[in-house]
Amino acid sequence: MQSVLCILLLFAGTDPFFSGGGRINGTPYARLPDTLYVPKAVDKLFLELPQHPGQGVSYAFKMDPIDHEWTPAVYPAVRYETLREGYYELHFRVLDAHSTVLNTSRFVIRKEAAFWHAWWFIPLLTLYVAVVAGVGVYIFNLYNLRQKLKLQYLRNQIASDLHDEVGSNLNSIALFVELLRKNATPETLPVLDRIISNSRESVELMQDTVWAINPRNDSLQKLIDKMHSFATQALAACDMALEFQSESSLADLQLSMEQRKNIYLIFKETINNAVKHSGATGVSVRLQRMSDALFLQINDNGKGYDTGRQYEGNGIFNLRKRAEESGLDLLVHSRPGEGTRVEVLCHP
Questions:
Q1: How far apart are CA 264 and CA 287, in angstroms?
Q2: Residue 193 sits in the same domain as residue 288
Q3: Which of 332, 302, 306, 327 is nearest to 317 (CA)?
Q4: Which of 63, 116, 139, 267 is 20 to 30 A from 90 (CA-CA)?
Q5: Are 246 and 287 in contact, with CB atoms under 8 Å apart?
């Protein structure tokens, strides 16, 4: 049952009750209509009728289908809160001091339904939210695609500029130094050789950077192919055997550009160290998947070295620096006479 509150509001006039006047939610009516309409935006009904002129009278009302019994009242006013949409019948009685019915009134009340209570509102709202969400996702994906295309265009431009301008300048330096070397004195030859060596290393590093920047090399398979190609050429020149293993499950791993670049440079530095310093007859390379990470292991059967000692050169330092740049886990294990093992773990 809905809550009911009766409030006293008296009307003036001769026999106003029988004249049919009253107030609905504060609005006066000279004659109450047969059907009372309650707007959909209003949840309450406050009906006030004129007080009966008789002495010692009382009132009673009942709202169908809300009330099951008559509710007594001292004053001819009735209030219903949170009235829902639908049709109601309000019955009103005037009783004398002996509870004899003096008069009865009946009103039909129609409460209009708010549009958000209509059957179509929830489906329409759901469709609206779905359309707005779909448009939002489409705009986000379109923006994301455009940003990726801009990034790819920028990477292509950088790769082209590095290859054409920087590469050409470095090659020119090496060529000019070679010409100077022909007429150089014995004292300047070591300096010129050092310039040539640094120039060639710079050209190689620039080429590796250009390769990593190029969007066409974004797949992990491209990286594996480049590693295999480099190791094959470097070891074949020194008559060293190569065992190269790569799992097919690596195909769907997505590494960042920086990770691919530093993994390749660590691999390249390790192969070069094996060629120059290990005295090995063979190198084995293994790439496999560990959960969602890439695991790289490089072994040589060379003479090994004491990892606790300090050596000239920046080989080990460069490996660790590149690993830190990309958040790679790096392990270098070696002992004299036992060869060297380098392991890299990369989490995409």
A1: 12
A2: no
A3: 332
A4: 116
A5: yes
Cβ atoms of 127 and 94 within 8 Å: the answer is no
> Which residues on neighbouring strands pair with residue 109, listed in sequence order?
36, 88
Task: Look at residues 80, 114, 148 and tell me which one is the last residue of a structural domain.
Answer: 114
Burial class (CB in 10 A: 0-12, 13-18, 19+), 170: buried
Tell me the two tokens of residue 275. 């060629």
pLDDT of residue 155: 64
Contact 207, 229 (CB under 8 A): no
Q: What is the 3-state secondary structure (H, E, C) of 107-162?
A: EEEEECCCHHHCCCHHHHHHHHHHHHHHHHHHHHHHHHHHHHHHHHHHHHHHHHHH
Report the predicted TM-score, pTM, of the whole model to 2 decimal places: 0.51
Domain co-membership, 125 together with 103: no
Q: How far is 287 from 40, CA to CA, in rounded Å?
A: 71
From residue 216, give the alpha-carbon distance in Å to each of 156, 163, 167, 179. 9, 15, 20, 37
Residue-number span of the structural domain to which 313 is assigned: 218-348
Q: Which amino acid is at 151?
A: L
Structure tokens at 194: 């050092």
Of the chain, the percentage scoring pLDDT greater than 70 comes to: 78
Q: What is the per-residue pLDDT across 107-162, written as a single tens digit (0 to 9) for each? A: 787 776 666 667 788 889 999 999 999 999 999 988 888 877 776 666 666 666 55
**Last residue of one domain, picked from the residues 58, 91, 114:** 114
Burial of residue 77 (number of CB atoms within 10 Å: 0-12, 13-18, 19+): buried
Contact in structure between 278 and 302 (CB atoms under 8 Å)? yes
- Copy the structure tokens of residue 123: 């489906």
106's CB contacts (< 8 A; 6+ apart) are 89, 90, 91, 92
